[in-house]
C-alpha cells in the first residue's frame, strides 16, 4: 500500500486550483434540475483538520488556502469556493478544509448522487466516519467504495441520468498512474463521451507529468480546457511540487471566462517568486 496521505497536503496551492474548478463545475451542473452523478475516483478522507499534526507538519496550506482565505476581493469563482469552505468554518477561523467529496456534498442537491472511490483502507475509513458523523443526506445519495477508482469508473458510466462529473485525482506516487489516467480516459470517452471529466496532474520534474496534458488533448475531442498554475520555479534538487494543472473534458462553457479572471488573481495571491505564472488553453465547438 502506498504511503501518500492527502492530509499532509490538504489546502495547498494544488488543492486550491483543483477545488475552485470543481466548485465551478458543480455550481454549473446545479443550474439544471436534472440529477447528476459526481464520481470521485480518488476521494481521500473528505475533511482535513488544518490544526492537526499532519497539516501542521509541512504547513502546505499556509501558502495555499490560508492566503486565499485572507485575500481581498477574490473573483467570483473563488468566492463560490470560499462559500463552501465557510460552511465548515462558520466562526471565520480557518480550521477545517474540505476535500473533493465534501465540496461535492456541500454543493449538490438532494437528487444528485456521489460515488466515491478511496483505495487506502485508513483513508476510506476516515471518509466513512466523516460522512457518518458530519453529513446529512449521506445514506441516500452517497456510496463509498474501497476499490481501485480507475477500474471502478466503468461500472458508473454512463449514469442513468446521463449527467456526470468525474474527478480523476490520483497521487501519482506510482508512475503507472499517468498511464492509467490515459487508459481510463480512452475507455471513458467511448462509454460516455459527453461526461464532464476533470483530471488533475502535478507539475514536477518527471517526463510522464509533462506529457500527460498532450496525451489528454489527443483523446479529448473538441471541447476541453486546460488550466495550470505555477507558484514558483522548480526546486534545484528536482523535488517538490512547483505547480499543477487541471484538464477538463466537456467543461461548462462558463469555465474559460471564469479561469481567465481567476488564474491571474491566483498567480498574484499564491505565487512565491518571479516564476509564478499561469497557462490557459482551450478548445470549444
Ligand atoms: C490526491 S488524493 C485525493 C484528494 C481528493 N480528490 C481531494 O481533492 O480532496 C489521492 C487519493 O487517492 C487514493 N488512491 C490512490 N490510488 C487510488 C486508486 N487507484 N483508486 C482509488 N483511490 C486511490 C489515495 O489513497 C489518496 O487518498
Task: Please explain how this structure is put together.
The chain is an alpha/beta fold. It has a single domain, classed as 3-Layer(aba) Sandwich (Rossmann fold). Helix content is 41%, strand content 19%. It has helices at 13-29, 53-58, 65-70, 76-88, 100-107, 121-134, 138-141, 149-152, 176-191, 207-219, 255-270; strands at 37-40, 47-49, 96-98, 113-117, 142-145, 164-168, 196-203, 224-230, 243-249, 277-283. The strands form 2 sheets. Strands 5-4-1-6-7-9-8-10 form an 8-stranded mixed beta sheet, with helices on both faces. α1 crosses α4, α1 runs parallel beside α5 (100-107) and α1 runs antiparallel to α11 (255-270). The longest helix has 17 residues, at 13-29. The model has no long low-confidence stretch (mean pLDDT 94). S-adenosylmethionine is lined by residues 4, 6, 18, 40, 42-44, 99-100, 117-120, 123, 148-150, 169-171.
Brief sketch in words of this structure:
By secondary structure, this protein is α/β, with parallel strands linked by helices.
Secondary structure blueprint with pairings:
Elements: H1 13-29, E1 37-40, E2 47-49, H2 53-58, H3 65-70, H4 76-88, E3 96-98, H5 100-107, E4 113-117, H6 121-134, H7 138-141, E5 142-145, H8 149-152, E6 164-168, H9 176-191, E7 196-203, H10 207-219, E8 224-230, E9 243-249, H11 255-270, E10 277-283
Parallel strand pairs: 1-4, 1-6, 4-5, 6-7
Antiparallel strand pairs: 2-3, 7-9, 8-9, 8-10
Helix pairs in contact: 1-4, 1-5, 1-11, 9-10
Bound molecules: S-adenosylmethionine.
Amino acid at each position: 500500500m502506498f504511503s501518500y496521505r492527502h492530509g499532509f497536503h490538504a489546502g495547498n496551492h494544488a488543492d486550491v486550483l483543483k477545488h475552485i474548478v470543481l466548485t465551478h463545475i458543480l455550481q454549473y451542473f446545479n443550474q439544471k434540475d436534472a440529477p447528476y452523478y459526481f464520481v470521485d475516483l480518488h476521494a481521500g478522507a473528505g475533511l482535513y483538520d488544518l490544526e492537526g499534526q499532519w497539516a501542521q507538519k509541512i504547513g502546505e496550506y499556509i501558502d495555499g488556502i490560508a492566503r486565499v482565505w485572507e485575500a481581498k476581493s477574490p473573483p467570483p469563482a473563488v468566492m463560490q469556493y470560499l462559500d463552501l469552505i465557510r460552511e465548515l468554518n462558520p466562526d471565520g477561523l480557518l480550521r477545517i478544509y474540505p476535500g473533493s467529496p465534501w465540496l461535492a456534498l456541500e454543493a449538490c442537491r438532494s437528487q444528485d448522487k456521489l460515488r466515491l472511490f478511496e483505495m487506502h483502507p485508513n483513508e476510506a475509513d476516515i471518509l466513512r466516519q466523516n460522512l457518518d458523523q458530519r453529513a446529512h443526506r449521506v445514506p441516500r445519495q452517497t456510496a463509498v467504495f474501497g476499490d481501485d477508482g480507475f477500474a471502478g469508473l466503468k461500472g458508473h458510466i454512463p449514469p442513468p441520468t446521463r449527467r456526470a462529473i468525474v474527478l480523476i485525482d490520483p497521487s501519482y506516487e506510482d508512475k503507472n498512474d499517468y498511464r492509467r489516467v490515459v487508459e481510463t480516459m480512452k475507455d471513458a470517452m467511448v462509454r460516455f463521451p459527453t461526461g464532464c471529466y476533470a483530471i488533475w496532474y502535478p507539475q514536477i520534474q518527471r517526463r510522464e507529468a509533462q506529457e500527460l496534458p498532450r496525451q489528454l488533448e489527443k483523446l479529448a475531442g473538441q471541447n476541453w480546457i486546460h488550466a495550470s498554475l505555477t507558484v514558483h520555479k522548480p526546486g534545484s534538487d528536482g523535488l517538490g511540487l512547483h505547480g499543477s494543472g487541471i484538464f477538463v473534458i466537456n467543461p461548462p462553457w462558463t469555465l474559460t471566462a471564469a479561469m481567465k479572471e481567476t488564474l491571474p488573481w491566483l498567480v498574484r495571491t499564491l505565487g512565491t517568486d518571479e516564476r509564478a505564472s499561469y497557462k490557459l488553453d482551450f478548445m470549444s465547438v
